[in-house]
Write a structure and sequence with these properties.
This protein is of the alpha+beta class. The chain has four helices and ten strands; from the N terminus they run E-H-E-E-H-H-E-H-E-E-E-E-E-E.
Length: 178
């Protein structure tokens, strides 16, 4: 694994993962978006709760750990932090984010991104991981595992197909503060 891709095994426990899966499964249709080109369902509106507050507190702790491994992030003179916008995604069997991409992009909010993070909310027995081709690394989709990586083109990535299972992930970013 690349030294800039950080993994925290069992970042969330089974109950925490199930909470987020239940959020997407039980949310009203009006709060869901389906991207047919990308093959996933996304929860659009998230109401704050103790689970979210705990998630953010724990993410900040892991981000501090990441910064301790890469001190430049704290010395560059730019203020940045955890975004409160997240994607809670559900991929049906056979669907996955096929396009190689990075998290930095043409939209203003994407231009401010420094890091990306992702948590697998369930185990996938066959496939379902994420491929970072430039690092020659494919993650395994394991319930509760957190990954953090640079948002730029050096860490382009794409999803791997889970042919027989539903895949759930929670993903977000860290960005410069305007």
């Amino acid at each position: 694994m690349d030294k800039y891709i950080f993994k925290k095994s069992k970042f969330l426990n089974s109950n925490q993962c199930q909470y987020f899966i239940d959020l997407i499964e039980n949310c009203p249709e009006s709060d869901r978006k389906f991207d047919k080109d990308r093959g996933y369902l996304i929860l659009d509106k998230v109401n704050p709760s103790n689970q979210w507050n705990e998630l953010y507190d724990n993410l900040v702790h892991c981000l501090n750990e990441y910064v301790s491994l890469h001190p430049f992030l704290s010395k560059q003179g730019t203020n940045w932090g955890l975004d409160y916008n997240v994607n809670l995604q559900k991929y049906l069997p056979g669907n996955f984010y096929k396009k190689e991409h990075c998290e930095y992009g043409p939209h203003l909010e994407h231009n401010l991104r420094i890091l990306a993070w992702m948590i697998y909310l369930n185990d996938i027995k066959k496939g379902g991981g994420t491929c970072w081709p430039q690092q020659n690394f494919i993650s395994t989709a394991k319930e509760g595992d957190l990954y953090i990586w640079p948002a730029g083109w050096t860490h382009s990535h794409y999803g791997m197909i889970a042919p027989y299972e539903i895949k759930y992930i929670l993903t977000g970013w860290c960005s410069c503060i305007k």
